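Technical note accompanying the year-one report. For the benefit of new consortium partners, we illustrate the data format agreed upon in the data management plan: each record pairs a sequence with a structure-token string. No post-processing was applied to the example shown here.
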Amino acid sequence: MPDLLTHYMASYLVARALVGPRRALLLAFVGLLPDVDALLLVHRWVTHSVPVALLTSAPLLALTYAYKRGYFGVAMLAVLLYTLHIVMDLLTGLTPALWPLAPALALNIGVNGVYGVDGVKVTPGFEVVVGPVDFARRDSVEGPLVSEIGLMLALVAALTSLIECASRRLGVYRA
């Protein structure tokens, strides 16, 4: 499974493309919400289901649209970040992403390449793995908090912010 830092940084980078850095720092925490199930000692529970997420967010989106229309885009972004977490988990293991409509799914995607004297050979691979949904409570839930990918994304975000800040000070910033 992606580590918490990777989930947070991916959410931050998506949010940062749409809102300012301070708001993106806060909104990125939405990308961690599906893992709240670990507090119940169940991982990849109903909190990792897109249909459940859409059903629960629909009334909130409707209320936001009706009463605080200016925040509707932010609410939609929050739903997107929540869903991004589920999609990322699909790429690393069985996830009940379509529960209760379908069993747990995992996507194995890869493109391997070989370069040699015979030229270039590219072999794409795609597999959908189907398995039972397992909502059993565990004695413990473990998983990575920080990984190399999360650290790389944090480094990219930090460098992007530094470049943006420096270019604004030098007067070469292009929005």
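Partners are asked to follow this layout when depositing records. The CA atoms of residues 6 and 149 lie 6 Å apart.
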